[in-house]
Write a structure and sequence with these properties.
The complex is a heterodimer of chains A (292) and B (429).
Chain A: E1 3-8, H1 17-26, E2 55-62, E3 68-76, H2 85-89, E4 95-97, E5 103-105, H3 115-119, E6 126-127, E7 136-137, H4 143-146, E8 154-155, E9 158-159, H5 162-172, H6 177-181, E10 187-191, H7 192-205, E11 225-228, H8 249-256, H9 258-291
Parallel strand pairs in A: 1-11
Antiparallel strand pairs in A: 1-10, 2-3, 4-5, 6-7, 8-9
Chain B: E1 3-4, H1 13-35, H2 37-40, H3 51-62, H4 65-75, H5 82-106, H6 115-118, H7 125-152, H8 155-180, H9 185-201, H10 214-233, H11 251-278, H12 284-311, H13 323-341, H14 345-349, H15 351-375, H16 395-418, E2 422-423, H17 425-428
Antiparallel strand pairs in B: 1-2
Helix pairs in contact in B: 1-16, 3-5, 3-15, 4-5, 4-10, 4-11, 5-7, 5-16, 7-8, 7-10, 8-9, 8-10, 10-11, 11-12, 11-15, 12-13, 12-15, 13-15
Classes of the chains: A alpha+beta (292), B mainly alpha (429).
């Protein structure tokens, strides 16, 4: 069972409580902010960074006459791919895909090669650039909150009854910080298969409200964050050019071939050497016998 | 094959330029670690790899001269190239060392490097690259040791080296296969058995004291082949950013083939430059032979590249301007032109023509690596809507790279004067 999040963009009001909650839970420092000029006017900070794991992008969509048609707010963060390019890139397994969904990072292993930054199709992993001791940063799906845990016996000295305490624990504690604070239900946390089904049901129930596309269902082999949207995703700066094949799948053949290539090449080179040497020896013998 | 030191003083006029340059590089290297990458480079989240990686990749490709020469001489019986094998290995060793120092500067947390020993990711090309570099540098070091034995007359050490090298090779290759097969016992045993058999069958006769143990050469070619191709595998993870003029599923093969032809061209360039610099006679026959090998390798590379472009339906895109022009320059000026030129025996025997063709090939390889790492990449593809900006290296990035390239040549000159690197001229006649 893999944990996932369904983002319903028709419900997001752009309050950015998720941005704040994320900063609080991960204890991230602030960044200088500034108005972005044209487009995305209230969008801040301008990009995901080592200090900002999630942010809301603002999209004011206009009709043919240039009149404001609708506003859409999009929460962006790591998509937690099913087969992540960053994990395939990492030479020291600092980045890992856990069975229950999150792609996590162990800073103590990281050598700082930044191959993950380059490999990610969503531009998510970011590096510290203002310190001599840099690490990689990205949304970790609050793996430290959502790991399967037992509900405590009592809270604030008050005993919890068995029935329902586990459920309340899951609802209040074992939820990513951003989802815990979302006031409109735009973010829903749960099992990926169930959320995918729910996304399709929501689209089917109100086909005029949504475009018929669950973003993240198939993109680069599927992601653990799923989006449904009132407008087509390319208008919201989502990548719509991504294949359904996972990124690491492209390099698997080359890496799988290595052991056979090493052994085969060694044997062939040894064989060629043996033949050329034998030929020289035969020639030398031949010469010495004819000279004699 | 008798080798000798180059004549001349240890420090020349060049040293007056090179030593201050290297000192400046060393100072800047320290500054980079005090201030961090952000303050000293123009690298960013959009451009996590910059000048240093470009230099590493093209330098490694040109340093392929060491393994293609060793392979030609020892495995394919190209005896006439024996005279240049030792300088090729020294050049390779120094190049790889300087690439290693560049990587040290480039890595954000190089002090964590020992984690490469502890973990074994399933499909990481970077993991393969790291192990290939490490093991190949060790092989180059072992290949170079005879020069030291010759210089100091350490015959006992040479005997030990001759005995232990094949064992170390078997262990290194087995260990490498163990890691690369994701700890598969089956592959590890196969690698151990195959290379042990090779070591036993190819064991030199006790009276054969010449040359380098063949197992070292086999290891050099194996690790180099895996290494050159794995550098191409790195970019297989970027089908969504690297222009499909360069991104192809066979990128590892393209990287290997271009490194082979680049390696031969670099040997021609290096041999001619060294002859000029140390005022030693040039062996036109050897150079013409290298030209022929470079030519053959280039034709193979060009056919693979062009067929690949045609099969993937990208050939037309090369003629639509933009980055297509870069591909055309790479293929025509840096590939087809030298490949055609070197077909003519007259050009292969003409030193000027040979030098010109070699420079074209080297330029083509350099442009190829530049295109794959930077120019053919759209770093803003993952973030539509972001404001694109360009990357230019800072003076610090440039200074570190230039000083390390300078150091390679400086130390080559130094070693060539204190260690027997070159063959005695009368031997080559």
């Amino acid at each position: 069972m893999s944990k996932a999040c369904l983002v319903d963009l028709t419900k997001c009001i752009g309050c950015r409580a998720c941005q704040v909650a994320c900063k609080q839970w991960h204890n991230l420092p602030p960044e200088p902010t500034r108005f972005q000029g044209t487009g995305g006017c209230y969008e801040n900070p301008p990009a995901l960074s080592a200090k900002t794991y999630t942010r809301i992008t603002f999209h004011e969509l206009v009709d043919q006459n240039g009149d404001l048609e609708t506003c859409v707010f999009v929460k962006r963060q790591c998509m937690h791919c099913d087969d992540p390019a960053c994990v395939a890139a990492c030479p020291v397994t600092a980045l890992r895909k856990s069975d229950d969904g999150p792609v996590t990072y162990d800073s103590y292993k990281c050598i700082g090669c930044r191959y993950c930054v380059l490999a990610c199709p969503f531009g998510v992993p970011t590096a510290d650039w203002d310190t001599p001791f840099p690490q990689i940063h990205k949304c970790d799906f609050c793996f430290d909150r959502i790991e399967e845990g037992e509900a405590p016996d009592k809270v604030n000295g008050i005993a919890l009854d068995d029935a329902g305490s586990q459920a309340r624990f899951a609802e209040t504690q074992a939820t990513p910080a951003c989802m815990k604070v979302c006031p409109t239900g735009a973010l829903k946390f749960g099992d990926r298969d169930e959320l995918l089904k729910e996304a399709q049901e929501r689209i089917a129930a109100e086909p005029t409200e949504y475009v018929k596309h669950v973003y993240g269902e198939k993109e680069v082999g599927g992601t653990n964050w799923l989006y449904i949207s009132p407008v087509s995703f390319d208008k919201l700066n989502f990548r719509t050019d991504l294949p359904t094949r996972s990124i690491p799948d492209h390099s698997v053949w080359a890496l799988k071939a290595v052991p056979a290539a090493v052994v085969g090449l060694g044997a062939v080179l040894g064989g060629i050497y043996w033949v050329t040497k034998r030929r020289d020896e035969v020639e030398a013998e031949h010469e010495s016998t004819t000279n004699a | 094959m008798i080798h000798e030191e180059a004549r001349g003083k240890l420090l020349t006029g060049w040293s007056a330029i090179m030593i201050p340059l290297m000192l400046a590089g060393a100072v800047v290297f320290v500054i980079r670690f005090i201030l961090g990458l952000g303050a000293t480079t123009n690298l960013s989240d959009a451009y996590p790899w910059g000048l240093w990686i470009v230099i590493d990749l093209l330098w490694i490709a040109l340093a392929a001269g060491a393994f293609v020469t060793a392979g030609t001489v020892y495995i394919f019986g190209g005896e006439k190239y024996h005279g240049i094998a030792r300088s090729a290995v020294l050049m390779g060793l120094l190049s790889y060392t300087c690439v290693g120092i560049t990587l040290l500067a480039d890595l954000g947390a190089p002090w964590n490097f020992w984690n490469l020993l502890l973990w074994h990711p399933e499909h990481s090309a970077m993991f393969e690259v790291s192990w290939c570099v490490g093991l190949y540098v060790c092989v180059l070091f072992f290949e170079f040791l005879p020069a030291v034995f010759d210089r100091f007359g350490w015959e006992q050490l040479r005997d030990g080296w001759r005995k232990i090298s094949p064992i170390l090779v078997v262990l290194a290759v087995t260990w490498f296969t163990f890691l690369m097969s994701h700890l598969s016992i089956m592959w590890t045993v196969i690698a151990f058995v195959v290379f042990s058999i090779l070591a036993i069958v190819l064991k030199p006769k006790p009276n054969d004291k010449s040359g380098v143990p063949i197992m070292l050469i086999i290891a050099a070619v194996v690790f180099s082949t895996m290494h050159q191709s794995s550098l191409g595998s790195l970019f297989l993870l970027m089908p969504d950013k690297l222009s499909h003029l360069w991104w192809t599923p066979i990128l590892p093969i393209c990287f290997f083939l271009s490194a082979v032809t680049g390696g031969f061209a670099t040997m021609i360039f290096t041999e001619m430059t060294l002859s000029k610099f140390f005022r030693r006679p040039m062996n036109g026959d050897v150079l013409a032979g290298l030209g022929k090998l470079a030519c053959g390798a280039m034709w193979v590379y060009m056919i693979v590249r062009i067929v690949d472009l045609v099969v993937r339906g990208q050939l037309g895109a090369a003629f639509t301007g933009g980055v297509g022009n870069l591909l055309l320059i790479e293929i025509i000026a840096g590939g087809l032109l030298p490949a055609v030129l070197l077909l003519a025996p007259g050009i292969r025997k003409n030193l000027g023509g040979l030098m010109f063709a070699s420079l074209l090939i080297m330029g083509g390889v350099v442009l190829n690596r530049l295109n794959v790492v930077l120019l053919g990449v759209d770093p803003f593809a993952p973030t539509p809507g972001a404001t694109p900006y360009a990357y230019y290296p800072t003076l610090i990035e440039i200074l570190i790279s230039v000083s390390l390239i300078g150091a390679t040549f400086f130390f080559f000159g130094l070693f060539a004067r204190v260690l027997p690197i070159f063959t005695q001229p009368h031997q080559e006649a």
